[in-house]
Amino acid sequence: MGLFHLRKRLFHTGSHIRSVKTTSHRLRYGLAILVFFAIIVPACSDLIVGGPDPVDNVAEIEAAWRITKSVYPYFQFKGINWESLHPLYRVRAEQSSGDEIFVVLFDLLAELKDGHVGLRTKGGYYVQAYQPPRSVRDRFAFDPLVVRKYFDRELKLAGEKRIEYERMSSNLGYIRLSTFTSGSWILEFDAVLSYLRGTDGLILDVRNNGGGSDHTTDVVVSRFIDAPLPRAPGFVNGQLQSRQPLQPGGGFRYAHRVVVLINGVCFSATEGFVEMMKQIATVTVLGDTTGGGSGAPEYFSLPSGREIRISTKDFRRYDGEPIEWNGVPPHIRVVQTETDARSGRDRQLEQAIAVLK
Amino acid sequence: MNGNQGIHFDTPFRTRTCTTMTPPCRYVLPVFVLWLVSVPLLAQDLTNQSSLFEKGIALHGGAGLLAVRDEFISSEKYSGTGPFLAARWSRDHETYGYRLSLQYLFTSGLKNHNVSAELRQFSLGVDFLYPAGKMVLRGKELYFFAGPSAELFLHFRRQNIAGSGESIFNAYSAASLISAGVRSEAYCPIGAEITLDGSSQLSILSFGGRSVDPRKTGASPFRLLTLFTGLNAHGELGANYRATASLRIRIAYRLEVTRITSWDYFISGSDSFILGVTYAL
Q: What is the reported pTM?
């Protein structure tokens, strides 16, 4: 009786009982759904994606260390004891797992403090291991849009938009070469120079030009010489390389005065270009010392399929000093800062115009 | 006997060996499947199943597990958790339902041991769903919808490895697919307010884009892909609760897989637990 009364008090009618049954039914469904999700959620994607191919991180570091030891030309110049680094990095490789090897490899390559050195991911993304300090300092100190303010007309483009040129109001010519990357585009330099043939002087702007190919720089330098120009010394494995002098080229020689504008972002083949231009009597180099790197880098494969990029040659200035780290200083030093560029002023270009007037 | 163990087809002119699907086969078959699935559905009438089709604006949020292997960076697997946001707009017409969906997934905690990566994944989809009949399963009616779908999928990954000095290891990798495919959905009402649902979507033909190494000869960053070389598939299992006449609450599980083999191998998978609301318009 007691239970009957209790039940009657709790559920006055049959419809209430049905309501409770429905609620219980829903709860069961809800619980089943939650359990289902709890089981399934953590599992699938991880299984589908699967595990990695095994990569021997120690073999990776060993290969990088050995390759660098066999080809890198600047250990002595930079005072790097490469042998002493081997045990340190081997231990780090042993302690690394998976892609932690990226950090170890990156740090090993950064020991060279060489702007040409870096690594490529398996798919080919290049990561530079070191940024030369002058390159970091000057990277925003030059702005091509600021240069345009010094012209009363729009600059012309040539060579797949890698050459920008025009006459200035003071009958000076201006050519900006944004790169020396290899390709037939540089052959258009001939037409550009012809366009500026009647000018009283020429500004050749290679600021922020990160380099490229010596063949490309040769095309440009050859237009300003009237006799064979000997090459600066270069060493491979400590042996002096013999290189043929550069011959004059093109339809005519630009004989008026030339100012070459440089800064700390100029690197690699561009530095070789600047050093050769410095030897020409009509040329004044103006701006700030170049970045300091001319190691003729090459790619070498590691066991995992990654690649490292290592300098292989020691190119020197005409005075015998390595271009690496030292860079090529200008004849006239004109400092230009990021603040100048932001305020719309190009001090180096202004000074170049003053020199040529 | 040479090492080629393929099937030999005799033709009147010559004997040819087919070890894998030739490019024309790869394109014809998926288009045929798409046609086969889509065409019979066009004659169906949505009205009798209209009440089941989720109409209105839906906002979904959740969290999930992610796993990625992208051999453009390395062959290592990265995994982690991340939030998931999605919005859907659906409406029905006389003979079909139409849905526009957006989703965004982001995580900065994708890890491989002590190395991490950031991942952003976005997709924009358009689906046309036609009633595809019903069946009875253990006394419950199960209603099917199916139809063609198109999807834009974008995947972007950035490595987080700080180097020395000014150098920062910030390798990037990207993948994209613009896909045409098929989508199917099933609804099972289990009460006046609760409906269980499931869906699956499969890309059949895609226009794919990928980070490539420019030094590799012929490595174009864009290619036409089939489901064998560029697959984007996802499925959901969920439950809808009708809280009011115009408001539905949804709880769901979503599995998404993207696999691209035409360039450096890429596979990503995500399991997401989703909670959302739908406001019926």
A: 0.78
